[in-house]
Amino acid sequence: MKLINDPNDPNENVYSRRRNRHHGSDSRVFLGILFVAIGGLLILENLELLSYDLSHIFISWPMLLIVIGVYNLSRKASSAGFILIGIGSYFLLPRIFDVPDHFFHNFWPVILVIVGIVFITQWNRKPSLPMGNGEVNKNDILDETALFGGRNMSLVSEQFKGGKITSIFGGSKINLLYCKPVEGCIIDVATIFGGTKIIVPENWNVKTEVVSIFGGFEDKRGNSIISRVDQSKIVVIKGVAIFGGGEITTMP
Question: Cβ neighbours of residue 250 under 8 Å, at least 6 residues apart?
């Protein structure tokens, strides 16, 4: 009986590739439905078949944030998804209900509450890691939090399984030059009024799926290095950057 996934099993690798293709197909289907819905709403508005109250709600930038948040949930980026949905919903409420004049004065407290709830429900759990054929070594997992400060750290691992990085009003410098990633390696990043620098070997194939809101997350390795990456060493960096940023580099 097979109880765990063996990364060295060729059948397991085939299953992983099929699962990844299925996940990509789900994302394309979601985008297709989204484009159809947006186009349909615009057609109804141009034909004056959509009332002003409804168009003021559905064709608006807060609704766009909500849609992007739902899209991130479909891609398993829960933290970014819930934060975007929360911000979009906050700015959408005055378009639906009569709210007090001081409603927008509570923007930052509400944002702090939303972010706090997301971290409690999502980031307090163990990171989602690929299954192996033995016990997980703590040196193979990245779990770094920088709060109102910063820290530099280096990780040495022959079976790096990914993990999570949280930076709030602080920053982290993570050195992964001495790590070898396993299949399905994912690093979750949450940067809020802070910064994250991730140093990786030149041959890593890094895919960035970080949602930026008044921030950014940039791959600074350069095209000459990216073109020489090892396609078998795939690492996915996903998450959210809000009023903050991050970078991927090969230079310590």
Answer: 177, 199, 200, 201, 202, 221, 225
Q: What are phi and psi of 33, to 5 degrees?
A: -65, -40
Rounded to 10°, the helix 78-96/61-74 angle is 150
Place of tokens 């299949």: 183
Query: What's the token pair of residue 90?
Result: 């906050």
Other CB atoms within a 10 A radius of the CB of residue 215 amount to 19
CA dihedral 154, 159, 162, 163 (to 10 degrees): -70
Per-residue pLDDT tens listing for the chain (252 residues)? 334 344 444 444 443 444 444 455 566 787 788 888 888 888 988 888 888 888 888 888 888 888 888 877 776 667 677 878 888 898 898 888 888 877 888 887 887 787 777 767 655 455 555 544 455 677 788 888 887 788 888 899 888 989 888 888 888 899 999 999 988 899 988 888 888 899 998 888 888 888 777 788 888 887 767 767 777 788 999 888 888 889 999 887
Tokens of 240: 């959210």
Alpha carbon of residue 156 to chain centroid: 24
Token pair in block for residue 7: 């990364």
Angle in degrees, 0-180, between the axes of helices 10-46 and 61-74, rounded to the nearest 10: 160
List, in order, residues 6 or more apart from 147 with CB less than 8 Å away.
Answer: 166, 168, 169, 170
Kindly give, in sequence order, each residue whose CB lies less than 8 Å from that of residue 42, ignoring residues fewer than 6 positions away: 59
Per-residue tokens: 243:
């009023």
How far is the C-alpha of 221 from the C-alpha of 177, rounded, in Å?
13
Q: What is the pTM of this model?
A: 0.60
Residue 12: φ, ψ to 5°: -70, -40
**Residue 198's beta-bridge partner residues?**
174, 248
